[in-house]
UniProtKB/TrEMBL annotation:
It comes from Spirosoma endophyticum. This is Asparagine synthetase B. The keyword Signal applies. Residues 1-20 form the signal peptide. It comes from the Bacteria. Keywords: Signal.
């Protein structure tokens, strides 16, 4: 009995070692072998939420993720339809060694803390049907990444400091209700008027300026801001026009300052300068705010219909490398109220991460102790023009969308910050 028992113990030990050797890490590829790129980000976020680290392998197989192996994570990947590979510790170490080679444009960034995410949206207080097509709300829900919704009151009360990551989308911070009735309903407008009155502002434009300044303070204090579509444009317009009436009589009952353009202060903005305001075309007039928007109401700005991501050094330009991780570097253009950014309006301090032939599409910068990204357009998989722009995109049809991946890169970016020490 001793010999068979000893043999059995040795066999169990060997098989146990083999099992341990080949099941110590999970690689989530983000190249063409990935079955669902967007939901893969949700897996990475869940691991962080469970207080485990995620290694982001920059420029390795499309920006893959590597995590410690557990049966729970494997199950979660299978349930969500996310491709993964179980690898040994030695294989994981070999990959990291490969990425550390100074001759290759790759790197490993360890993500350590799930960001507290909020989306600024009027759906907090009103029906706001148009906002239901907010690409970030859609992709956060699809990727199963939890978030909260805030609007003007939360900003005015100073609640932003409780969070790490703030998104702005189809919003008008100038107080002109999107420049026409197609953008906001009477209910949406009434809610904003009520909030302004509650907090002692005589005009919605004054209240929206206070909100814009609150958002700027959030970012300067160390928060991360991600803005798309008209929010990116109107936030800077509102900040530049502090103390200047740029709102026509059709919106607030009195005329705009005839010298408003000359009084703009571009030192107060995030990304844009040297821009010209569009004239007031009436309550149901044009929806263009300024010449920051290179499309100027044409829908999208070039016949080719594509923009290109820049290739950054993963070792020296780590932040833009994280924000541009993708399995494709050429991405189809998509329209929006602010489709793309005129090159001449982009400040030299703004880092361009993606550009089309005639415009900049994807910008990054720093504000105080925080960071921000501005992304032109409304929906990366939206129709390129004509009708249907009010219909939410079904992301089940676009699980590999490179345009949506850029959004999710931004969601994970704050997790690269170091955890606070426990004392």
């Amino acid at each position: 009995m001793k010999q068979p028992l000893s043999f059995l113990l040795i066999l169990l030990a060997i098989t146990g070692q083999i099992s341990a050797a080949w099941a110590n890490a999970i690689l989530i590829p983000m190249d063409d072998q990935q079955a669902n790129h967007l939901k893969a980000y949700g897996i990475a976020y869940k691991v962080l939420k469970d207080e485990q680290d995620v290694d982001w392998l920059l420029n390795y197989r499309g920006g893959s993720f590597m995590v410690k192996q557990t049966a729970a994570i494997e199950t979660e990947c299978r349930v969500r339809g996310v491709s993964f590979e179980t690898i040994s510790d030695s294989k994981a170490a070999s990959i990291k060694q490969q990425l550390s080679d100074p001759d290759v444009n790759m790197n490993v960034v360890t993500l350590q803390k799930a960001a507290k995410i909020i989306v600024y949206s009027p759906i907090k207080v009103s029906p706001a049907e148009f906002e239901n097509t907010d690409a970030v709300l859609l992709v956060l829900t699809y990727a199963e990444i939890p978030y909260e919704v805030v609007y003007d009151e939360e900003v005015l009360k100073g609640d932003l400091a409780k969070y790490d990551w703030l998104h702005l989308h189809h919003e008008d911070f100038t107080g002109q209700y999107g420049r026409n009735m197609h953008r906001q309903s009477l209910t949406d407008i009434k809610v904003q008027e009520d909030i302004a009155k509650k907090y002692g502002y005589s005009k919605v434009s004054q209240m929206k300026l206070a909100v814009a300044k609150g958002i700027k303070a959030f970012c300067a204090g160390g928060g991360y801001l991600f803005a798309m579509c008209s929010a990116a444009e109107t936030l800077d317009i509102a900040l530049a026009a502090e103390g200047v009436d740029i709102v026509g009589s059709s919106y607030d009952g009195d005329g705009m300052d005839p010298n408003a353009q000359e009084k703009l202060d571009f030192t107060k903005t995030f990304a844009f300068g040297n821009f010209t305001l569009e004239a007031d075309n009436g309550y149901r007039g044009f929806s263009t705010f300024s010449d920051i928007n290179s499309a100027g109401g044409r829908g999208y700005d070039q016949p080719g219909g594509f923009f290109e991501l820049f290739n950054f050094s993963a070792k020296w330009d780590v932040i833009p490398s994280m924000l541009t991780q993708n399995h494709e570097s050429i991405i189809k253009e998509f329209f929006g109220q602010t489709t793309a950014f005129r090159k001449g309006a982009v400040k030299p301090s703004s880092l361009v991460m993606g550009e089309g032939k005639t415009s900049d599409r994807y910008l990054y910068g720093e504000m105080g102790r925080g960071q921000w990204t501005f992304y032109g357009g409304h929906d990366p998989e939206g129709l390129r023009g004509g009708g249907g722009f009010r219909n939410p995109t079904d992301l089940n049809l676009h699980p590999h969308s490179p345009g949506y991946r850029l959004i999710l890169n931004n969601v994970l970016f704050p997790s690269a910050r170091k955890k606070k020490r426990k004392t």
